[in-house]
Amino acid sequence: KGKKPLAGRKVLVTAGGTIERLDPVRYITNDSSGKMGFALAEAARDLGADVTLVCARTDGPPPSGVTVVRTPSAGEMLAAVMERLPEMDAVVKAAAVADYRPAERHENKMKKGAETMTLTLVRNPDILQEIGNWRYSDEGNPRRSPFVVGFAAETTDVERHALDKLARKRADLIVANDVSQEGVGFGADSNAVNVYGAEGLVLALDRQSKRRIAERLWQLIADRAGWKPSGGEGV
Ligand code: PMT
């Protein structure tokens, strides 16, 4: 009998929505439940991979049998991902990372005062972009790099935005979900995705469970990365 398709592979998955604190009891976040990232981690585990799950705020506990690293904010997630990058065979970024954070983080709970208040936000690092830059930072010679997969949560012009993200962030694949559709994306148990590579659309998956989508994505990744089940008696 053959080995599991991801046996011997180390993969990192990000999940959930980052939280960007204003003060000890208040923060900015988004609707990500972590379900897509959890499904990817579970599927990779069951296919035989050694899985690290880097997660921000999520609904419910992470799956068992994977290494969990908790990173509430984008800044913490960036550090956790970059530190582990060189040892990984694949990185899949299903987390919804806040693009902005409050410019100031108050040490004590903010007090009520004036009728209106203005929050100043500053840009967060873009983790997928940082990974892309790292891959090509050695005088144009691509490093030994994990296979890198980003997501794109869009509501309009899905294909154009996905292809733009693929090129700009120098990822190998972008998984686009049209989150304006019912039962797709944030919080849902199902998803529907179009996957883009350098040559354009490479896989379209109709609405189905996030777990099933995750399995199809790992098959595609193993295929595109040229992974063969290693070291086994199998085929
Ligand atoms: O968690 P669920 O409830 O299951 O929902 C799943 C999901 C909708 C969150 C997921 O399928 C998804 O689309 N995740 C990416 C959401 C997102 O932030 O998309 P984006 O188009 O803003 O970002 C594009 C890519 O860049 C993503 O891989 C994101 O992780 C990454 N990014 C974005 C901003 C940032 N500062 N750093 C990043 O690394």
TrEMBL record:
Pathway: Cofactor biosynthesis; coenzyme A biosynthesis; CoA from (R)-pantothenate: step 2/5; Cofactor biosynthesis; coenzyme A biosynthesis; CoA from (R)-pantothenate: step 3/5. Binds 1 FMN per subunit. Its EC number is 4.1.1.36, 6.3.2.5. GO terms for biological process: coenzyme A biosynthetic process; pantothenate catabolic process. Transmembrane segments: none annotated. Its cofactor is FMN; Mg(2+). It comes from the Bacteria. Residues 6-222 form the DNA/pantothenate metabolism flavoprotein C-terminal domain. CTP binds at residues 99, 109, 125-128, 151, 165, 169. It catalyses: N-[(R)-4-phosphopantothenoyl]-L-cysteine + H(+) = (R)-4'-phosphopantetheine + CO2; (R)-4'-phosphopantothenate + L-cysteine + CTP = N-[(R)-4-phosphopantothenoyl]-L-cysteine + CMP + diphosphate + H(+). GO terms for molecular function: FMN binding; metal ion binding; phosphopantothenate--cysteine ligase activity; phosphopantothenoylcysteine decarboxylase activity. GO terms for cellular component: phosphopantothenoylcysteine decarboxylase complex. Residues 11-235 are annotated as: Phosphopantothenate--cysteine ligase. Catalyzes two steps in the biosynthesis of coenzyme A. In the first step cysteine is conjugated to 4'-phosphopantothenate to form 4-phosphopantothenoylcysteine, in the latter compound is decarboxylated to form 4'-phosphopantotheine. In the N-terminal section; belongs to the HFCD (homo-oligomeric flavin containing Cys decarboxylase) superfamily. This is Coenzyme A biosynthesis bifunctional protein CoaBC. It comes from Cohnella thailandensis. The chain holds residues 183 to 417 of 420 of the full protein.
